[in-house]
Amino acid sequence: MVGVFPYLLLSAAIFAIGVFGVLTRRNALLFLMSVELMLNAANVNFVAFSLHYGNLTGQVFALFVMALAAAEVAVGIGIILVLYRNFGEIDVTVPTTMRW
């Protein structure tokens, strides 16, 4: 039986890739994909600890995180469409010109 450590290592790697993507990307779609990677890393942790402790609580939380991710994508795509309609591109640094 595989222990928890390989899952935690995988989750840490996925989360690190997501953080790197959030910090370095200027494209709004890639930004959303990086946030999804971070949420999936949390899901891997929830399921791994659920397996380790032998209860279903982590898997239930993972389902809630999936629902949250679906809602985040729906709102994010709406924001991206408005961003593209108003500025002609989906660069997240462009709307900073709207400040006073």
UniProtKB/TrEMBL annotation:
Record GO biological process: ATP synthesis coupled electron transport
- Residues that span the membrane, as ranges: 6-23, 30-54, 60-84
GO CC annotation: NADH dehydrogenase complex
Using the UniProt record, name the top-level EC class of this enzyme in a single word: oxidoreductase
Where found?
Membrane
- Cite the EC number: 1.6.5.3
Bilayer topology term: Multi-pass membrane protein
Q: Which domain of life is it from?
A: Archaea
- Tell whether Acyltransferase is among the UniProt keywords: no
Q: Cite the InterPro entries for this sequence.
A: NADH_UbQ_OxRdtase_chain4L/K (IPR001133), NUOK/Mnh_C1-like (IPR039428)
Which Pfam families does the annotation name? Oxidored_q2
Q: Which UniProt keywords apply?
A: Membrane, Oxidoreductase, Transmembrane, Transmembrane helix, Transport, Ubiquinone
Q: Which GO terms describe its molecular function?
A: oxidoreductase activity, acting on NAD(P)H
What's the family? Belongs to the complex I subunit 4L family.
Q: Which HAMAP family does the record match to this protein?
A: NDH1_NuoK
- Entry-linked PANTHER family: NADH-UBIQUINONE OXIDOREDUCTASE CHAIN 4L, NADH-UBIQUINONE OXIDOREDUCTASE SUBUNIT ND4L
Stored NCBIfam families: PRK05715.1-2, PRK05715.1-5
- What protein name is recorded for this chain? NADH dehydrogenase-oxidoreductase-like protein
